[in-house]
Amino acid sequence: EAGVAQSPRYKIIEKRQSVAFWCNPISGHATLYWYQQILGQGPKLLIQFQNNGVVDDSQLPKDRFSAERLKGVDSTLKIQPAKLEDSAVYLCASSLSTTNEKLFFGSGTQLSVL
Amino acid sequence: SQQGEEDPQALSIQEGENATMNCSYKTSINNLQWYRQNSGRGLVHLILIRSNEREKHSGRLRVTLDTSKKSSSLLITASRAADTASYFCAPGNDYKLSFGAGTTVTVRA
Fold first, then answer.
1. 114 residues of chain A, pLDDT tens digit each
2. B80: closest CA of chain A, how far (Å)
3. Contact A42/B88, CB-based, under 8 Å?
4. Which residue of A100, A106, A108 is in closest CB contact with B97?
């Protein structure tokens, strides 16, 4: 079974620039999550999709972050404009379950904002 | 908050020893999950224990859940160097799954 694919693996940008991350979940997984993990902390949920509908985006900074899930499969997360405090690892996860059980994570995109 | 809080923050043990870490949470849950994260990688699901279960085993892992105390523990027996990682608990329900800051486990050869 192929895992959750994320790209790019690393990204370095300057503040005020924009950046986009891509995620391809495991085939057939209804639920897709984007987490932000700052160094030394646990993952923080940014947005959760069920198929192509948003379930929870309460912690997404909507003035600069946006996300979409295309046709209920792939997803992109965008930051525009980036701030220094956005430096983190952005993790995508997917789950067959619609009740937040057994998430499969990608390896993440490490973002450095200079 | 539904977020779990792991204790201790860090743990260093000798290969072959057991490692125990604890998780406390504040809200009602349907289940509690434990995940492992190796350096530079994503999280890997280890085990899920439901709110009506008290103990669960998977290989060298043993998880307990005490819903009256809102706490869980993860025991890794006969630790190996490959167990060096961060471990996160995630109290969950139908609506949300939140992660704590994790316990960093270092297994010394």
1. 689 999 999 999 999 999 999 999 999 999 999 999 999 999 999 999 998 899 999 999 999 999 999 888 999 999 999 999 999 999 999 999 888 899 999 999 999 999
2. 23
3. yes
4. A100
- Look at residues A41, A101, A27 and name the one whose alpha carbon lies nearest to residue B34: A101
Any A CB within 8 A of B89 CB: no
Does A107 contact B42 at a Cβ distance shorter than 8 Å? yes
Instruction: List the one residue out of B104, B99, B109 whose CA is nearest residue B38.
Output: B104
Cβ of residue B48 closer than 8 Å to a chain A Cβ: yes
Q: B27-46: per-residue pLDDT in tens? A: 889 999 999 999 989 999 99
Query: How many angstroms away from the CA of A51 is the closest CA of chain B?
Result: 15
CB B65 within 8 A of CB B74: no
Subunit contact A4:B96, Cβ cutoff 8 A: no
Paired sense of beta strands A88-95 and A31-37, if any: antiparallel
